[in-house]
Amino acid sequence: MEARLLLQQVLGVNRAWLIAHANDALQTNRDAEFQALLTRRLAGEPIAYLIQQREFYGLNLRVSPATLIPRPDSETLVDAALEKIPHPIAKPITVLDLGTGSGAIALAIAHNRPQASVLAVDASDAALTVAQDNASQLTLSNVQFALSDWYANLAEQRFDVIVSNPPYIAQNDPHLSQGDLRFEPLSALAAGLDGLDDIRQITEQGLIHLKPQGWLMLEHGYDQGAAVRELMAQAGLVEIATRQDLGGNDRVTLGKNPLIVSQHWA
Ligand SMILES: C[S@@+](CC[C@H](N)C(=O)[O-])C[C@H]1O[C@@H](n2cnc3c(N)ncnc32)[C@H](O)[C@@H]1O
Fold it and tell me: Which of 182, 180, 175, 170 is nearest to 220 (CA)?
């Protein structure tokens, strides 16, 4: 299947065309291109980087070595966000996606909630270029992009929902030098000795950027649920809960800003 995908990429054709032309001879220059891709795949490079795309939440996204390859696990985070954003929307809703990478989570939310305004930020210029390109390809006009070290460039902007799939792997975890992870940006994966450095920072500053009754939702490792719940409680969030991914692993923890509007403006 992967060999077919690579051949489709080289020839710029779809699966049906390839099957219909199974007996055609391959031009020599195309064959060299195909062999080069096969060699890279055999060396372990992820297929998504070789064909420069990955499907996420039903959307076809461009990916590059500057972006994480979106994972099915992150669809749990999109589900949690969509659950908290009413449809149809009665009042304007603002959503912040911290560490957007290819834009996967921000674009899935924007696509499913066209009346929501989504701001997607990343510290990587190269990743933001890919995310912006994906928004244009999908003709989604309700997503804006900003370069920011987490909340640093957002002044005091507040949001109804903040989502993030931040780096959450411990910096010494041996998985970082195995499989697909070897080819993905370390800055998208590793977060300090216990993997919680970024989650800690995002959670500690969450209340400053949440509207009253707003939700913070974070993806994390299968064994980090208790730690993230504790961090959210320390930050003053309430109604804290952890959701499981399709594999039954703890994957997303969410908590709410307890302030109600009248308290906020008092
Ligand atoms: C695990 S990836 C998630 C990418 C995307 N949201 C997804 O789910 O496919 C984490 C992202 O956070 C970004 N990032 C890392 N440190 C950051 C920081 N200090 N401020 C903003 N973004 C950061 C990385 O560039 C990367 O795109």
Answer: 170
Question: Ligand 1 centroid vs 108 CA: distance in angstroms?
Answer: 16
Amino acid at 5: L
From 129, 187, 200, 251, the mutation candidate for ligand 1 (largest count of ligand atoms within 8 A of CB) is 187
pLDDT at 156: 87
**Where are the alpha helices (H) located in the chain, listed in sequence order?**
2-11, 15-20, 28-42, 47-51, 75-84, 104-112, 125-137, 197-204, 206-209, 225-234, 261-265
- Mean pLDDT within 36-59: 97
Looking from the CA of residue 201, the nearest atom of ligand 1 is: 19
- Indicate the pLDDT class of residue 43, thresholds 50, 70 and 90: very high
- In this prediction, residues 181-196 reach a mean pLDDT of 96
Q: What is the pLDDT of residue 266?
A: 44
249 pLDDT more than 50: yes
Q: How many CB atoms lie within 10 A of CB 18?
A: 15
Beta bridge partners of 255: 216
DSSP 8-state code for residue 169: B
Who contacts 236 (Cβ-Cβ below 8 Å, separation ≥6)?
A: 207, 258
- pTM score over 0.90: yes
Which residue ranges form the domains of the chain, and what is each CATH number? 2-43 (no CATH), 66-265 (3.40.50.150)
Which residue has a Cα nearest atom 13 of ligand 1?
A: 99
Ligand 1 neighbours (beta carbon < 6 A): 68, 70, 74, 99-102, 104-105, 121-124, 127, 149-150, 165-167, 187-188
CA quadruple 188, 193, 194, 198: dihedral sign: negative
As a whole number, the mean pLDDT across the chain is: 95
